[in-house]
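are you around this afternoon, could really use another pair of eyes. what follows is a protein written twice so to speak, once as letters and once as structure tokens for the fold. i want to understand how the tokens follow from the sequence so walk me through it. anything you notice is useful, everything is just below.
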Amino acid sequence: MDKELLKKAEEYLEEQREQIKADLIRLVKIPSIESEAEEGAPFGRKCREALDEAIALYKENGFEAEDKCGGKYGLASLKKGGEKTICLYGHTDVVPVSDGWVYTEPFEPIEINGTLIGRGVEDNKSGVIASLYIGKMIKGLGLELKNNLNVFLGSSEETGMADIMAFKENEKMPDLSIVPDNCFPVCVGEKGICHFWAKSEKTLSDIISVVGGSAFNVVLDKATAKIRYSEDAFEELEKIVSKNKRLELSLENGELVLTALGIAKHAAHPEGSLNAAYILSEAISSLKTINESDREIFTAARDLLKTPYGEIYGIDIVDPDFGPLTIANGMIKTENAKLYISFDMRYGSVASGEELIGKIEKTLSSLSFKAEDIKNEAGYNTANDNPIALKFKSIYEEISGEEGTQNQRSSGGTYARYLSNAYSVGTTVPYMVAPVDMPEGHGECHQCDECLFIDSFLEAIKIIFMMVVEADKIL
């Protein structure tokens, strides 16, 4: 690795620190949560606005950039005329927000102790800005790459990845793809992902409605049930709530309103989370003053939601490469007096998605539930001796000073799973942690008070920059 170039990159990024922050804040201010499609805005007006803003940033910095496929994605060119193509990736859309932000409102980013706080500061508007400044460094430091360098700007990564599917259909596949939306030193595999709804076959009676969550991939942190009023039910619920600080009870419009509060986390990493739908179901299943059928439905829901590792289905698998299978809940609702519970399953390569789904359907049936709207995507697993992965790993180790690091297999799903010769990396480094005291369940991506430590971000940009330089030589 070129130590002199590394030093120049460090100096360049430090000089650009304030502008990097300003550019990231500019994107984070846009509440780019997917909404109803409009003409020219296939994922909603705010997603299109964020995509346009990202494209404008690239143009302002001297790069060619344009929206593609009617606003499904953008494509920027950092260097043209080479033999092959390296592509970087970032997405401008974000997951929905929930109540409970402490330091600021989600789309009013602030800085505390060198740390930016706001929805999307890490996942993944940081990837858009990291890619921009890699291109700026290549120009600013006078480097001559032998290959093309492009940036893909996505706008529906969090909600189905229709953006990358359109890219695959309409563009030539890059020879090498680097996706800054994961972890270091380098990720060479991703779990399969399966989303589905579990629907009760029995009909609710005393439970009027249940609502909570807005995304598959965020562990549910707030769920509310409206329950038919009776004096006995009110007294019973008061006793239950008095013993559980995560439950709240009120009386609204003649109905009992029971709210459960949990701890959100990304569904890919549910350890440390606390599922609000489980808390709610446990409380309702214990009610002696409601219809027996309603109680049975919520007893089954309680059992399905008890842990996010699939024990009830007999699929609590620990994969030697990917670790434990997870099956987390992100939404709960009622429609036509039926209870619906969403699940996000992440699995390795020990069992196929089809095999796992079969076991899930069998268990659900035994509990008078049915799986609906099943969407399954297989993961991928690259060999540890892959030369690109080995080079990226060595770059990380040399810059970080860490030795004996391991290639990563991820529980998260990134664009890499749809690409060939693709590697995902981080936008922060694990050895630089944000110096902000966050409440439990805050600070990480998909959580309230999502944060990004600027020193860690600049370190990550430097590492990815050197990966691009070395990859250019290998290609």
